[in-house]
């Protein structure tokens, strides 16, 4: 009895609040930010903080999705765990944001939550990595050509080591991520037909610690037989430097190193001769992602895919540009 009287009173109270506009939630299109505000509410589900690249990408996104640029940003970093990232997206849907941006940790597992966002009428923009889900489940993607990045790294290996009976080991990025999958595809394609021997290939999860641990294992197993290391990102390569030096070997000479990203610490290692070649992967995607969100929320038609250009660097080129690099 008591419960039903309480429920009735609560209902009357709620009806009164809605009638006087105190219920918050705002008019449609003003997102879940308490009504009235013309800021575009955006939920950004970032992978985590696994690397220097990720830090630069997060900074670029937060700068672009600022209040002075017309956004109210809710940021979540998922500590490189996809289930945490998916639950962050579900929270954004429940908050009724105007748009959701995702840097998807892995390619698979997104269909259900992207359908939930679509059913809720909330557009999703992907930045950085891609997903295997149908592209009618998201409005647009902005990122890099990972396959070309891997191909460019492989072409450098072919150019410098084909015909020399070189032994190579690989530090792969996060298992199941489009960055790792596509870089491997491009790299393998480039070295096909050469006599470069890939002795081992394991994931270091894009982290320094992961790169160091896997490289320690490679050195115990293969020792001085290793001539070349291909790391899917600078951070794993930087972690491998510690292991190579601890084994009494000279990185850049005893073991030549090619990586991808071109973040400050990687370019410093390249300029000082510890790395031998870096393929850039531009993390500054914030402005493009913010422009896509604005256009989509305004109901404009947008390109389904936007690829940002990359470049590559030798040791000499790194020394020249190091001080002027934006990240
Ligand atoms: C690439 C990005 C990768 C970087 C890593 O766009 O997804 O993830 O290469 C980062 O440094 O962790």
Automatic annotation (TrEMBL):
Residues 43-300 form the Periplasmic binding protein domain. Residues 1-23 form the signal peptide. One of its GO terms (cellular component) is cell envelope. CDD domains: PBP1_galactofuranose_YtfQ-like (cd06309). It is found in: Cell envelope. Keywords: Signal. GO terms for molecular function: carbohydrate binding. It holds the Pfam family Peripla_BP_4. Its main location: other. Coiled coil: none annotated. Belongs to the bacterial solute-binding protein 2 family. This is Sugar ABC transporter substrate-binding protein. It comes from Microbacterium oleivorans.
